[in-house]
């Protein structure tokens, strides 16, 4: 496994490579990332994983500072998975040009996390634009856990590059909590709350189709969810997977949630 820290060396290294699969990450590799890597290895001849905690996508400095870092452990896992190349760039290498036109989201995209994390997706799109330009992958593998991220990047990247964005299903732990690098920051009591939230969401979803008025039902259940779990809820919304518009039917739709336990922000969709 090659480890490359510099973009000009990376360019040379990738020159002759065809059928390239790319898995962008912010490190603290877990089974969710692993599933993306395995899918890339299955369908592509060469797999590159990037580890880069992109500062421009953090709307909160404290969140950026406390984001988990485990580079040695990550490299061991990636080596075991037989990743071909790991790219660990520096910020000055990624942000090496100023764009003439600022990245901005359309009004209709300013929903869910985009509404609550100002500038977050603009930062994600910016870094993915830069990484895609540099790496020129055939396929980019992204997790459905961050569905809105996948949705926005699919639109942005596939319009500008020949690269295809491939969605991969959410990997969960034995309590059904969606795996996330941030979960290491949770105490065992908080993990129990997170597990209970998933359980309640599954129950809400199961009962949604029986309701005459989905929104009234959701509002009731939202209150229960907050009271039962003492979470700080940002949103719980039923949205269509195709266009992320609000939905009143379970068909082709998912419940999207963002909430805080002990100041740790968690997202999921079911
Ligand atoms: P991150 O390191 O959190 O930026 O995530 C890197 C990639 O892994 C993104 O495409 C995420 O959507 C994906 N990912 C993170 N957690 C999971 C999970 N539990 N299951 C599947 N994919 C995931």
Bound molecules: adenosine monophosphate
Count of alpha and pi helical runs: 10
Unreliable parts:
none
Supply the helix-strand structural class: alpha/beta
CATH architecture of the largest domain: 3-Layer(aba) Sandwich
The fraction of residues in strands falls at 15-25%
What value does the Rg take, in angstroms? 19 Å
Shape: globular
CATH homologous superfamily title of the largest domain: HUPs
Q: What's the CATH class of the largest domain, please?
A: Alpha Beta
The SSE string, one letter per element, is: EHEHEHHEHHHEHEHHEEE
Kindly state the number of beta strands: 9
**Strand order, biggest sheet?**
1-4-3-2-5-6
| Topology-level CATH name of the largest domain | Rossmann fold
Quick synopsis:
With 270 residues, this protein is of the alpha/beta class. It is 41% helix and 19% strand.
Structure description:
There is one protein chain. The chain has 270 residues and is α/β, with parallel strands linked by helices. The protein has two domains: 2-168, 3-Layer(aba) Sandwich (Rossmann fold); 181-269, 2-Layer Sandwich (Pantoate--beta-alanine Ligase, Chain: A,domain 2). It has helices at residues 7-14, 31-43, 61-65, 71-80, 91-94, 112-116, 120-135, 147-160, 188-208, 214-229, and strands at 2-4, 20-25, 46-51, 85-87, 139-143, 164-168, 232-240, 253-261, 264-269. The strands form two sheets. A six-stranded parallel beta sheet has the order 1-4-3-2-5-6, with helices on both faces. Strands 7-8-9 form a three-stranded antiparallel beta sheet. Helix 7 packs across helix 8 (147-160) and helix 9 (188-208) runs antiparallel to helix 10. The chain is globular, with a radius of gyration of 19 Å. Adenosine monophosphate is lined by residues 25-26, 32-33, 35-36, 142-143, 145-146, 168, 170-171, 178-181. Adenosine monophosphate binds at residues 25-26, 32-33, 35-36, 142-143, 145-146, 168, 170-171, 178-181.
């Amino acid at each position: 496994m090659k480890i490359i820290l510099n973009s000009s060396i990376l360019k040379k290294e990738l020159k002759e490579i065809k059928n390239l699969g790319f898995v962008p990450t912010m490190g603290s590799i877990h089974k969710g990332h692993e599933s993306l890597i395995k899918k890339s290895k299955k369908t592509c001849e060469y797999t590159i994983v990037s580890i880069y905690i992109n500062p421009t996508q953090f709307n909160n400095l404290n969140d950026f500072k406390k984001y988990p870092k485990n580079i040695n452990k990550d490299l061991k896992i990636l080596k075991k998975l037989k990743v071909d190349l790991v790219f660990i760039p520096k910020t000055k290498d990624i942000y090496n040009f100023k764009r003439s036109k600022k990245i901005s989201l359309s009004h209709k995209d300013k929903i869910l996390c985009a509404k609550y994390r100002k500038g977050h997706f603009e930062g994600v799109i910016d870094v993915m634009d830069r990484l895609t330009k540099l790496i020129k992958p055939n396929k980019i593998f992204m997790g459905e856990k961050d569905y809105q991220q996948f949705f926005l990047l699919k639109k942005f990247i596939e319009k500008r590059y020949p690269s295809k964005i491939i969605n991969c299903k959410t990997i969960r732990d034995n309590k059904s909590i969606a795996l996330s690098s941030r979960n290491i920051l949770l105490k065992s009591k908080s993990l129990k709350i997170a597990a209970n939230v998933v359980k309640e969401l599954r129950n809400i979803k199961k009962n949604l189709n029986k309701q005459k008025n989905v929104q009234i039902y959701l509002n009731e259940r939202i209150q229960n969810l907050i009271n039962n779990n003492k979470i700080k809820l940002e949103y719980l919304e039923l949205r269509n997977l195709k266009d992320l518009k609000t939905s009143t039917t379970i068909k082709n739709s998912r419940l999207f949630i963002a909430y805080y336990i002990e100041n740790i922000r968690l997202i999921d969709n079911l």
